[in-house]
Amino acid sequence: MKAKVSYDSEADMGYIYLNANKNSSIKSTEELEVNPFISIDIDMKKTIEGIELAEDEAAGLRDLLYKGETYTKTDHPYLKTGHGFSLRISEKAVKSRYRNSGITFCFAEEEYTGFVGFDLDVPEE
Length: 125
What we know:
This protein is mostly beta strands. It is built from one helix and eleven strands. The protein has a six-stranded antiparallel β-sheet, with helices on one face. The chain has a five-stranded antiparallel β-sheet with strand order 7-8-11-10-9, with no helix packed on it. Strand 1 (about 1-10) and strand 2 form a beta hairpin.
């Protein structure tokens, strides 16, 4: 399983595609309750399909991907855990976490800022 991540230098926005190999249609986009610079795209089945990062929250993706003035996109492998997958875009220590729809958002600061990645639960079959 791979995550697709992208960063648009003109808009200073980053995006993480949670299901990079799946075509789905987004039903709604919601701002993350604890951080207005993170939005989640939700599909018809009410699962999170992608994470949009704006302004300072996009910095981790910018640092990870920035290769010039152009839009960049790349694949990054998830780290398989006992209950799902993890993706980190920074090596900063996690000081706070926020759960939403089976995803734990991880932050470098205690007030839910400094997005560093997420842990994605995979339901048991």
